[in-house]
Write a structure and sequence with these properties.
The chain is mainly α. The chain is built from 15 helices and no strands. Helix 7 packs across helix 14 and helix 8 runs parallel beside helix 10.
C-alpha cells in the first residue's frame, strides 16, 4: 500500500493506494475458486488428503510475492531519506516517540473498519448459521458476492479521494459503515436468504468500502517517509487484532448457555 502511494503521481495517489486494499476481497474469491474442485472430491478423499492441495498451492503465491518484493526498489521519497542520512535506527521507537498522536489517530480510524469486516465475515456467519439456523452455503455465497462488489467499489473510493480529498471521503465512509453494520444485522435477523444477500452486498460490499478504499492515502500521509512503513503497519495491525478478538469473544457470548460465565470476564482477567 505504501509503495503504491509513494510511487503514484501526486494527483492519483488515492486511486493507486486503494488498489492493494482490494487484496482481501480478491484473496477470498481466489481462495474459494481454488477450493471448489477440491470440495467436489468424495468426503474420505477430501478429509484425508484433498484439503491439503489449496494450502500447498499457496506456496507458489508466496514465492511470487517474495520475487516481486525483492525486485521492487524503494520509493523515491524513502531513497531521499536514506541519502540524507535521516533514516531512524529503530523506526518503531522513533514512530512511538515522535508520532504517537498519529499512531493513535490511525489506530482509532482503522478500528471501526477492521471490526466491521471481521464481524461481517466471522461473527455474523456464525450467528446466522448456528443461532438462527440459516443455511451456511447461502451465507457464504452472500459474503462472496459482497467481495465481488468490493473489488469494484474500493478503487472507486480511491478515485473519490483524489477528486474530493481523502479526509471527507473517509469521514463519509465512517458514517456509511455505521449504517452498513445495522443493515447487515437487520438482514441476517430476517433469516431470509434473499434479504441476507442484499444486506451483505449493500452493507459489506458498498457502504463499508466507501471509506475503506480512501484510508491508505490518509494514513500514509500521516507519517514522514522515513517512518511511514512502521507507522502504518503497526497502527493498522493493532486494531485489527483487537477487532478479531472482540469478534471471537462476541461469537462465544452469543452462543453460550444461560448462566455460564461471560467470556468477556475471562478475557479481562487474562489481560490484567
Amino acid at each position: 500500500m505504501l509503495l503504491a502511494y509513494e510511487y503514484a503521481p501526486p494527483d492519483r495517489r488515492g486511486f493507486f493506494a486503494s488498489l492493494p486494499q482490494t487484496g482481501p476481497a480478491a484473496g477470498v474469491l481466489l481462495g474459494n475458486l481454488v477450493f471448489l474442485p477440491v470440495a467436489a472430491l468424495p468426503d474420505d478423499d477430501l478429509y484425508s488428503w484433498g484439503w491439503r492441495i489449496p494450502f500447498l498451492a499457496s506456496i507458489l503465491l508466496i514465492a511470487i510475492g517474495i520475487v516481486v518484493r525483492l525486485r521492487i526498489a524503494e520509493s523515491p521519497e524513502f531513497v531521499a531519506v536514506q541519502d540524507a542520512g535521516a533514516e531512524a535506527r529503530v523506526p518503531l521507537f522513533d514512530v512511538l516517540r515522535h508520532h504517537l498522536r498519529e499512531v493513535l489517530l490511525v489506530c482509532g480510524g482503522f478500528l471501526g473498519f477492521g471490526a466491521l469486516s471481521i464481524v461481517a465475515a466471522t461473527f455474523l456467519l456464525s450467528h446466522a448459521t448456528v443461532t438462527l439456523g440459516v443455511d451456511r452455503f447461502a451465507v457464504i455465497t452472500a459474503i462472496l458476492l459482497a467481495n465481488v462488489v468490493q473489488v469494484g467499489v474500493v478503487p472507486l473510493s480511491g478515485w473519490l479521494a483524489d477528486r474530493y480529498g481523502p479526509r471527507p471521503v473517509v469521514l463519509t465512509g465512517a458514517v456509511a459503515s455505521i449504517v452498513g453494520i445495522f443493515v447487515l444485522v437487520a438482514a441476517v435477523e430476517t433469516r431470509d436468504v434473499g434479504l441476507i444477500t442484499l444486506g451483505y452486498v449493500l452493507g459489506f460490499g458498498v457502504l463499508y468500502c466507501i471509506g475503506y478504499g480512501a484510508q491508505p492515502s490518509v494514513y500514509a500521509g500521516a507519517f514522514a517517509p522515513g517512518c511511514a512503513t512502521r507507522g502504518c503497519r503497526w497502527a493498522s495491525s493493532s486494531p485489527r487484532c483487537w477487532a478479531a478478538r472482540w469478534a471471537r469473544v462476541s461469537r462465544r457470548s452469543s452462543c453460550r448457555p444461560r448462566g455460564s460465565p461471560s467470556p468477556w470476564r475471562r478475557t479481562s482477567a487474562r489481560c490484567w
